[in-house]
């Protein structure tokens, strides 16, 4: 069925319309009047007509019967009136026009333009069904000729008078056709828009439902239907809508509301008013199952953690040095970065070995792959094995369902940094050697071979060679690791860098503590230079942190530095003399007690690295059972 259907009430109108619309496949003409006209309109709509055209009584009846269908009424034009008046004039005698007030008002304006105001008497009927009364009135007024619609004409002729049909001429029909075509175009645009919006709102995985000011649902996507339908048959009946309508009326928003649906599912709902200009035009709600929300959060956290497996430091940072000894090491490290071989970084605690590992990875061809750092001293041996190699489901009691991907696998395509390699248990040393030789791993409890493409960077503050000699480190592993060796100098060998680090750390703590310390006086810097820094850069970092927390003025003074250095017990960071071991143990136990057993915090209190604390604890016979 064509999109535009004209319900023409007369044969001549129907044929005129057919002529005017010839060649336009979108238009079809049906000739029918009154009840038959309504039936024809209904049928046309059922067959797909999208805009209807009609006229007069029939048009009014169609509008009442099909209020939701766009309907264009053919209006009378000046030409129609002129044609009727000319016909009446030819017949002779007084002329009356009987029609609805609305039509007469339109005609009056036309008459005025044409200058024929008093050519015909106008008799208004408030309803087409009252045409008889109108014609009677015209008869009483002495009309010889009555102009009106078909019913009026029939009635006039029944009275023996001349009836003249007020016909729609080509101008009015053309206008109605044009209007209908425009309506059709707008309708199509609106439909395309609605389809676009529907596609968009259906493409998201949360529910969207909107209501207008009258409370009618104006948007409802698939997910909202899924969430709201089961309990209530149709989402329109859902009690949740009452709430949404209320938010629309109040123009208020509520986000993150957790509500329970009747079937027990919990959903996170955001209610938002829809405002157009200054007016509230309704409300929209987004709904998401809490479970789904949690899933997304978990996935996001995993993703963030994965991204966390990136190198955070580069050579640019390391190059901020004035020490020739450092420059040599950096040059070596840069060259090592390009070679895809195992690197062993040696140096005292806190000299920045981990920084080198990050920088080497970041400058290596593997830089777009993961960088996984593991502190072998911070994790108990048994846990370390499963952390590194992963395990199969059911490998041991307490093993996670689905097993676990080990760090070697996670580092695939990138670099794994094994810090404090000297602390690695013997059995693990053997397994690590296999990884280095075979480039493959087995998960615990699984005999499937998993090839891994990783580069190993190891670090230690121990003398590995001495450990080999003492039989505490596997010789074969030592030689595997000792391919490209870097020796990072201690801070006392690069004292010219102390002012640089002080500046850098002051900036850092200014930000962290929201302070505005400008610097340190020269005497203070000289005191720092005279100190031997057993804890190296980490110790300097802690000292500056403490000075910053205590600094009274805009510049850190020598007196403050002196006091801080004197107060530094720092037993744990120094290679303890035998007599000092007991005091060191007391300090450690004290710090642990103050930190409620939290080792990270205790390490901070002692001003030593976490791994150093782990090592000391082990030396003291206190086995570490968590990585807190
Ligand atoms: N180039 C640097 N710039 C700024 N800070 C640095 C730099 N190098 C080291 N540090 C500081 O020293 C701390 C220790 O560095 P890092 O962890 O790399 O040392 P490490 O030699 O690996 O120590 P450990 O052997 O105890 O693990 C860092 O947390 C940082 O505060």
TrEMBL record:
Residues 323-549 form the Sigma-54 factor interaction domain. It comes from the Bacteria. The keyword Hydrolase does not apply. This is Transcriptional regulator containing PAS, AAA-type ATPase, and DNA-binding Fis domains. InterPro entries: AAA+_ATPase (IPR003593), AAA_lid_NorR (IPR058031), Homeodomain-like_sf (IPR009057), HTH_Fis (IPR002197), P-loop_NTPase (IPR027417), PAS-like_dom_sf (IPR035965), Sig_transdc_resp-reg_PrpR_N (IPR010524), Sigma_54_int (IPR002078). Pfam families: AAA_lid_14, HTH_8, PrpR_N, Sigma54_activat. GO terms for biological process: regulation of DNA-templated transcription. Keywords: ATP-binding, DNA-binding, Nucleotide-binding, Transcription, Transcription regulation. GO terms for molecular function: ATP binding; phosphorelay response regulator activity; sequence-specific DNA binding. It comes from Sporolituus thermophilus DSM 23256.
